[in-house]
Amino acid sequence: MLRLDCRFFLIALAAACSTPPPPTAADPLAAARCKQLVERALADNQAITLLGGLLQAAPKRLSGSPGSDAAVQWSLATMRAMGLVNVRAEPCLVPQWVRGEERAELLGQTAQPLRITALGGSIGTPDGGLEAEVVEVRSFEQLRELGEKARGKIVFFNRPMPRALRSVGQAYGEAVPQRSNGAIEAGKVGALAALVRSVTTAIDGNPHTGAMHYDDAVAKVPAAAIATADAEQLAKALQRGPVRMKLVLGCTQGPDVAGANAVGELAGSVTPERIVVVGGHLDAWDLGDGAHDDGAGCIHALEAVRLLQACGIRPRCTIRVVLFANEENGLRGARAYADTHRDELGKHVAALESDSGGFAPLGLTTSLRDEAAAAMQQKLLPLQDANAGTFLTGAGGCGADIGPLHNAGVACFGLLVNSQRYFDHHHTAIDTLAMVNERELALGAAVVAYTLSVLADG
Amino acid sequence: MLRLDCRFFLIALAAACSTPPPPTAADPLAAARCKQLVERALADNQAITLLGGLLQAAPKRLSGSPGSDAAVQWSLATMRAMGLVNVRAEPCLVPQWVRGEERAELLGQTAQPLRITALGGSIGTPDGGLEAEVVEVRSFEQLRELGEKARGKIVFFNRPMPRALRSVGQAYGEAVPQRSNGAIEAGKVGALAALVRSVTTAIDGNPHTGAMHYDDAVAKVPAAAIATADAEQLAKALQRGPVRMKLVLGCTQGPDVAGANAVGELAGSVTPERIVVVGGHLDAWDLGDGAHDDGAGCIHALEAVRLLQACGIRPRCTIRVVLFANEENGLRGARAYADTHRDELGKHVAALESDSGGFAPLGLTTSLRDEAAAAMQQKLLPLQDANAGTFLTGAGGCGADIGPLHNAGVACFGLLVNSQRYFDHHHTAIDTLAMVNERELALGAAVVAYTLSVLADG
Questions:
Q1: Quick one: B23-97+255-455 is in which CATH superfamily?
Q2: Cβ-count burial of A255 within 10 angstroms (0-12 exposed, 13-18 middle, 19+ buried)?
């Protein structure tokens, strides 16, 4: 899931607006179809097998890496094996950032190693690393007040992700600017580097990477995330007196290279020229295997289409699976899709993305409002029986990869899941298959499948 | 959670009945109170600390074991430290079943160890264990058809827990009779032992224990559960030809010993003689630490009362926390509570149990129906903002421990959570603290707290 996480923030905003109560009972035929999809998803239990396949073929698939090609090849082969048509890689250029060596330690009396990881897009430190005093801040305002006192130092952004918010997306949205923009703010005051508290409410030893930005008008400084447990220790050490730190980041940015969206279709039975897009993003941060972020979303899309086929449901419109390139650090795949298909966007009926993890589904977000939202909610009533009846309206793009489609006027939907655990492993080494529950993943696919059956019959 | 699992089955039945749509919007003051409780629960994050305390003080707390006393003592000390009043142990007699040595292996050409565990209440095997041929059945009918062919053999009940049902409680209810009554049916046909496929949809190496019964009119035979992965292997071996097995169970049943319910109260501010019971069960199967079953339920009750105090909410009625003894293999604590307080049951306004694990809350089940249910649903509307607005009416006792209260006419409620993972570790060695997510546990406590604030002001 993306750096700025507009989607989660919009979900949080949307959650504040109450949706009208469901007007009537679910249509019995629709309810039966929904039940059939749920039972088939659980009985076949294919989603976890598919996810295991992707993670075995391409455990590391950051944009521009060899694994990213392997992920596209696995996706195309899987789509062909499922009987999808028009299976192809749609090319785009993607950035090529390589992590390299990374380590940090406190020096002097407080000597100890720190668990850190470079933020995606960071420049490296000078050869041999850098050493400097650490200065802690909790906000950009605090840093600006420090001003010259931060010059030549490592700025330690230690604002915790707010724990009290039930919406972890909203909490993430509040804490993530120090990761996204910390290097810019550190550069403005002449600091040597930015060290950012990992964006999670968990207190543990896993540093969380993620995207960060530079401003061409500001000196670029390297940026790393520190595990929350080590951030707490560092803050305590700073209370006792000055602390010096050594930071080594070997990351480098190469030239853009070829990447691709993986695309395949289930042809519509009545109006095949009309299109419903469903997808997730195929790239993932390199520390873990991207099982939840966003292997799960890609598998939701693939398994949903398999379920429709397996249950003999033939939607009127074409369902186009798009597994997007480069969501994490560039959105090049999202832009390339909208650009490649710009003449066809008027025939896009809807777009649905899953990018909140493979947890138990709770419902959907949608860009629809008012009467259109109410009419759709009526059609989605059967999801209540799957405990997935939440319907948050007016929620913007509903997914970073379908954001350009939203901007082009396409009705957008996002799968809403129980994300309370999501930021425990988001962008870390422990975002692995073991964290995914097979039943929860399957239920998500069934909810996507039912929603597609509604959207593609509209 | 109990052997026969009436509650889960009733939930499944109730889920089939649609509840009326929420009549109006939530009361703003009630919504603010609910939000306050949720945010406080997440900010303080005490539930996971409390659960860690219980599991450290009494990781093994099967009825009649030394750990069961330690659990009661920890509970009383914790209630006193929280400022509860009338804190006491209410005694009852509990059974004393001791597991002892347990192992099994296939013999001859198929020689290999099997991962098994004795079912709770089983007799032991004769000294040195027993050896016999294995015969597989998928139902009691199949066993009855086998008749004399099963005499002298080990009956392998290999009916899988149905995977396709979204309600894992219903799936459990369908599969669990072979565990509860398999030994009786095996005894009827003169078999030597019952070997039961573990009741879970997961395929892995963890055998799941649980309660089983004997019928005094039928010869008693020892009974064990086998891990699902080993059950699959055993079934394959049986397809190739006859299989002999050795089974050693050292379990013994001692005389009943002293046990106790742990009880404490938050005194009502207006009508302290009127009582709302909230609780879980303090006993747990001995293989793991009972973190989800039902450490989580006990902590939901304790943390809910702490939250009410921390938020300055003073309910009109007394809230009585009851951590019940012996749910797993006897329900002696449940019966003792109803018996001890029989003269006071008319003053019991409501009872709420949490015994489905410490997962993200989805809502509540209730024994209420019709107008009473609709009125309560209106008061519980603020839970929708915590994604916990599901309200399943007519759901019977809502918890094994409060079943006797339901039978006495007390309105009952059960915490409904996302249980998709529950049976992955239910009654196994991996029901440990690591399986519990701190945010999900805290949210459950907040939902219980809000519900108590409604019930105790009614």
A1: Zn peptidases (3.40.630.10)
A2: exposed
| Cross-chain residue pair A420–B360, CB shorter than 8 Å | yes
**Residue A308 vs residues A82, A304, A450, B184: alpha-carbon distances, Å:** 11, 6, 8, 44
Catalytic residue flag (residue A327): yes
Q: Under an 8 A CB cutoff, do A39 and B443 touch?
A: no
Smallest Cβ distance to A42: which of B22, B163, B360?
B163
From the list A21, A164, A440, the residue facing B42 with the nearest CB is A164
CATH architecture of B100-250: 3-Layer(bba) Sandwich (3.50)
pLDDT tens across B318-374, in order?
Answer: 999 999 999 999 999 999 999 999 999 999 999 999 999 999 999 999 999 999 999
Domain residue extents for chain B: 23-97+255-455, 100-250
- This prediction's pTM: 0.94
Supply the ipTM of this predicted assembly: 0.93
Q: A6-97+255-455 and A100-250 share one CATH topology?
A: no
Interface of chain B toward chain A, CB-CB under 8 angstroms: 15, 18, 21-22, 25, 38-40, 42-43, 45, 163-166, 168, 201-202, 360, 362, 385-387, 390, 418, 420-421, 424, 437-440, 443
Could you report the per-residue pLDDT of A401-458, keeping only the tens digit for each?
Answer: 999 999 999 999 999 999 999 999 999 999 999 999 999 999 999 999 999 999 999 7
The CATH code of domain A6-97+255-455 reads 3.40.630.10
What 3 state SS string does B92-110 have?
A: EEEEEEECCCEEEEECHHH
Nearest to B166 among A15, A164, A386 (CB): A386
Strands (E), A309-347: 317-324
Q: Say which residues have a Cβ less than 8 Å from residue A297's Cβ, sequence separation at least 6.
A: A279, A280, A281, A353, A354, A355, A356, A358, A415
What tokens appear for A72 in the block?
């596209």
As annotated, the active-site residues of B are: 327
Residue A229's nearest CA partner among A442, A428, A25, A444 is: A428
